[in-house]
Amino acid sequence: MVVIYGIKEHLNPVKAQLSEVIHGCMQSVLGMPEDKRAHRFIPMESEDFYYPGGRTPAYTAIEINMMEGRASETQKALIKELFSKIESEVGISPVDVEVTIKEQPPHCWGFRGMTGDEARDLKYSINV
């Protein structure tokens, strides 16, 4: 699951495009299938969204929640691909993008009535 935060005036106009770019990166780097897009956009009022100095109101925070198992090199490749594609396709500078990958063991995931460690029919690999 991916959660994207930003100031609503900047995030709302690019939500669909940003979703396409994020999922495209997850497909190319992680091998995620097309139908495994799970994005949650949290457009916020500017007075509720504080961001670091040196950034613009386009500052966008992206939290990627995933089952553990991806190699550090794979995770770094995903982050770098996100910076590159978000800049070239959405127009948000890498200085205004923050990416955090949060990993949890498969038993901490629940979907389709089972836990992640019970799932045997995933159409993608966790260990990449």
TrEMBL record:
SUPFAM superfamilies referenced in this protein's UniProt entry, alphabetically: Tautomerase/MIF
Domain of life the protein comes from: Bacteria
InterPro entries attached to this UniProt entry: Tauto_MSAD (IPR037479), Tautomerase/MIF_sf (IPR014347)
Coiled-coil region(s): none
A Pfam family recorded for this sequence: Tautomerase_2
Protein name: Tautomerase family protein
Annotated source species: Alloalcanivorax gelatiniphagus
